[in-house]
Amino acid sequence: MKKLLTGLLVLGLVGGGAGWVLTAPKTLPSDTFAGIAGDAAKGEAVFWATGCASCHMAAEAKGEDQLKLPGGQRFETAFGTFLSPNISPDPAHGIGGWTLEQFANAIQKGVSPEGQHYYPALPYAAYQNMVPQDVADLYAFMQTLPAVETASLPHEVGFPYNIRRSLGGWKLLFLPSGWAVGGDLSEAEQRGRYIAEAMAHCGECHTPRNALGGQTRSAWLAGAPNPSGEGNIPNITPAKLTWSEDEIVEYLTSGFTPEFDSVGGHMSHVVENMARLPESDRQAVAAYLKKVSPVE
């Protein structure tokens, strides 16, 4: 019995140690941004494409106030309520004291400057596919925004989801790699994929998830229950989204559908962001959506 207990203890220690190593936060290679300088002017387009303001501005902010990013918006999910943090350049309450590398590790690896896992409410699963130059440009632009002296509020997440280290296991199991839509794509379709899958992170809302919040990639963009519990987010694969490419472009520009309806809810922010991009980018997204595998 003593040998058995000793053996179980050793196995427990080995297993615990292995789990601790496997769930440790992983950061980008140290030379990721070697020789890269951020361009704030180009970063503005990246800022709108990535939708930073939509979640981090004050609720109901309009006009220039959308460039103030104090956080505080509440996002209710089955795992708890997540509150967007202050990401203004304020050095005390925002990200003004972050380096480019710390910023990149946050949005692409889900790792804080203190070395803790971030919850995937931050869409690093999508942002991980952004190229370093765009990340550097985004960082440069965000440093030009107004600093807001508003403290970030803590998430309202209970046990066991409040165990940050467990997110390392979630990342091992569910963090996707590569593109959801492959195959032989034209240059425009590749651009649309980059915008939709990486920067605009369309799959974060439009793709269904399993019980632990991992995306069901076999049903990419096939629609999902609204995390708040109110209604559903629509299927935008060609099986259900039968609009022409021109009609999709018009929707992403004006918010009006071919049926003379208008965009509502959080999608209105997405349309506002898309409308700020060059029309060629909206055309690229429309071309990409036609290449997504149809899911009934």
Structure, explained:
The chain is mainly α and 296 residues long. It has two domains: 35-174; 187-289, Cytochrome Bc1 Complex, Chain D, domain 2, CATH 1.10.760. Helix content is 40%, strand content 4%. It contains twelve helices and four strands. The chain has helices spanning 2-22, 40-50, 52-56, 100-109, 124-127, 132-142, 166-174, 187-199, 203-206, 245-254, 267-275, 279-289, and strands at residues 74-77, 80-83, 224-225, 232-233. A hairpin with a 6-residue loop joins strand 3 (224-225) and strand 4. The chain is globular, with a radius of gyration of 20 Å.
Task: Put the structure in a nutshell.
With 296 residues, the protein is mostly helical. It has helices spanning 2-22, 40-50, 52-56, 100-109, 124-127, 132-142, 166-174, 187-199, 203-206, 245-254, 267-275, 279-289; strands spanning 74-77, 80-83, 224-225, 232-233. The chain is globular and about 70 Å long.
Name its key features.
heme binding; iron; two-stranded antiparallel ribbon; mainly alpha; Cyt_c-like_dom; 296 residues; Cytochrome Bc1 Complex, Chain D, domain 2; 12 helices; 4 strands
- Count of the separate structural domains: 2
End-to-end gap = 57 Å
Q: How would you state the average pLDDT, rounded?
A: 93
**Which percent range fits the helix content?**
25-40%
